[in-house]
Amino acid sequence: MVSRVIPVEPFDLVIFGGTGDLARRKILPGLFRRFVAGQMPREARVVGAARSELDVGAFQAMAREAVEEEVPRRDGAELDAFIERLGYVQIDATGEQGWSELAFRMREGVVRAFYFSVAPGLFGALAERLHGHGVAGPDARIVVEKPFGRDLASARALNATLAEHFSEGQIYRIDHYLGKETVQNLMAVRFGNMLFEPLWNAQYVDHIQITVAETVGVAGRGAYYDQAGAMRDMVQNHLMQLLCLIAMEPPARFEPDAVRDEKLKVIRSLDPVEPYHIVRGQYDRSEECPSYRADVDGLRSRTESFAALKVHISNWRWAGTPFYLRTGKRLKARTSEIAVVFKDAPHSIFGVEGGRHRNVLSIRLQPNEGMTLHVTIKEPGPGGMRLVDVPLDMSFAEALGPEAEDIPDAYERLIMDVIRGNQTLFMRGDEVEAAWAWTDPLIAGWEARGDVPKPYEQGSAGPEDAAVLMYREGRKWREIKA
Ligand code: NAD
Question: Which residues line ligand 1 (CB under 6 A)?
Answer without folding.
Answer: 16-23, 50-52, 91-94, 117-120, 122, 145-147
